[in-house]
Amino acid sequence: MTLPVLELVDLGKVYRGRKGGVQAVKDVSISVGAGEVYGFLGPNGAGKSTTIRMLLGLISPSAGEIHLFGEPLRNNPAVLRRVGSLVDGGAFYPFLSGRKNLEVLARTHGAGADRIDALLEQVGLSDSAKRRVKGYSTGMRQRLGVAAALLGDPDLVILDEPVNGLDAAGIQEMRLLIRSLAADHGKTVFLSSHLLHEVQQVCDRIAIISRGEVIREATIRDLLAADEGLRLQAAPLELARSVIEERWAVEPDGDTILVRATQDEAPEVVRRLVGAGIDIFGLTPERRNLEEVFLSITQEEAADA
Ligand SMILES: Nc1ncnc2c1ncn2[C@@H]1O[C@H](COP(=O)(O)OP(=O)(O)OP(=O)(O)O)[C@@H](O)[C@H]1O
Q1: What is the position in ligand 1's atom list of the atom closest to the CA of 13?
Q2: Would you state the pLDDT for residue 230?
Q3: What is the signed CA dihedral for 276, 277, 280, 283, rounded to 10 degrees?
Q4: In the chain, where the domains are located
Q5: Class (C level, CATH) for 6-223
Q6: Boundaries of each ABC transporter domain copy (predicted)?
Q7: How many Cα atoms sit within 13 Å of 178 on the Cβ side?
């Protein structure tokens, strides 16, 4: 088995202040494999930025371990050479062109000067490379930020809220760019977001973080599949319900029932109902999107608290 590119083990952070401590991150353990696009998903204040700052070595953890490419980050900043990041949308000189900004960064970092044209092409900014960043849209700035993150040809790209503040077209461009980083350039991508819809479309796997703790980790596929169901309209409904309940969980909802069965099981649902003399008026697959799943998870959490 290949080593994970990124591994967090029982990671924790307490911010100490005059009035005591704030536990911003607690017992976070996740591992990200090579070539994955991994989403770190949670509402505002959940601890996403704190985690990202720790794994970029900007602040130190209060507990736990960070391993990058199988090596501990602690006392080993050299391992960060293989990491590129976009945090806070990237900071650029507004009166310099996109190209000049990348040249300045390449000089500061001592890497990437020879790759600037290719990077501008990769992020779709070749035509605007000579324009001042001042006139760039938010989406263009974010994409320039991604180009900057790629200057050192990193194996792991960390993007903090990469689609924040973008319009629909900008989101679409960023989504394609992120997917292509993994698919065409072999990068591993770790991104944070509070925009569930975006994460659903761009990530292979996600961790949902709430109040500093990971409350669920799953592939997008599994997460959605777990919440699949079949919406049934039948008569008599009560009889249908008791027949279904012999085999599957049900959620009655007005004059329909949500059967917690997969689409593959639909024929069997039908057979059982027809066998019991029940009339079926409709049976449609229903899939909650990640947003609803996420809301139900965070609401369950809040209710438990
Ligand atoms: N420097 C700091 N000092 C004290 N508390 C902090 C500091 N930075 C963050 N926090 C607190 O830690 C918790 C997690 O914040 P963090 O910024 O990591 O969350 P987030 O998920 O990135 O949210 P957002 O999307 O709003 O930035 C919050 O309660 C926040 O108020």
Answers
A1: 12
A2: 93
A3: 10
A4: 6-223, 228-287
A5: alpha beta
A6: 6-236
A7: 31
* Gap between the Cα atoms of 181 and 37, Å rounded: 9
* Burial (0-12, 13-18, 19+ Cβ within 10 Å), 63: middle
Question: Average pLDDT over the chain, rounded to whole?
Answer: 90
pLDDT for residue 301 is more than 70: no
Asked if the domains 6-223 and 228-287 are classified in one and the same CATH topology, the answer is no
**Residue 165 CA to ligand 1 centre (angstroms):** 19
Assigned CATH class of 228-287: alpha beta
Residues with Cβ within 8 Å of 16's Cβ and at least 6 positions away in sequence, in order, are none
Rg of the chain on CA atoms, in Å? 24
41: β partners: 193, 208
Structure tokens at 33: 């494999």
Beta carbon of 22 within 6 Å of any ligand 1 atom: yes
- Residues 119 and 143: their CA atoms lie apart, in Å, by 10
Distance 45 CA to ligand 1 centre (A): 5
State ipTM.
0.95
Tell which residue, 161, 163, 183, has the closest CA to residue 173. Answer: 163
- H helix runs in 150-289, sequence order: 168-183, 196-202, 220-225, 237-245, 266-275
For residue range 225-270, what is the model confidence (pLDDT) as tens digits? 767 889 999 999 999 999 999 999 998 888 999 998 988 999 999 9
Mutate-to-test residue for ligand 1 from 11, 14, 15, highest number of ligand atoms within 8 A of CB: 15
124 touches ligand 1 (CB under 6 Å): no
Q: How far away, in angstroms, is 304 Cα from ligand 1 center?
A: 22
DSSP states along 123-190: TT-GGGTTSBGGG--HHHHHHHHHHHHTTT--SEEEEESTTTT--HHHHHHHHHHHHHHHHTT--EEE
Residue 159 near residue 199, CB atoms below 8 Å: no
pLDDT at 293: 66
